[in-house]
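Tutorial, part two.
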Amino acid sequence: MLILECPCCGVLADETELTAGGEAHLKRFGPESSDDEFEGYLFRRENPRGVHFERWRHSHGCGKWFHAARNTVTLEVYGTYSAQTTEPPEAIRQKISGVAPGWKWRLFK
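Running the prediction step on this input gives:
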């Protein structure tokens, strides 16, 4: 079972108390965007085997959105952080680099 700590209220919540919101750190495109940009936002997603950044909502708790860094193979959670953050905190990046050599943060377009 996946257990994440909500960084907003500090509660350790299992996946039944949370709602998954897909990949984190995507650039969202509005009405003024081109068809290619909007198509990319809707359909082009990472589906990595390993380190992944996701959006979660503490739906049966404080109701706030947050981001989680985890491994999709081992379900190891590297950390959680505010959804208002544009990239993972340095401490989480270092933790990931320590267990997944060669991993690099990718810039989202």
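The chain has one domain: 17-99. In part three we will examine how such features are distributed along the chain.
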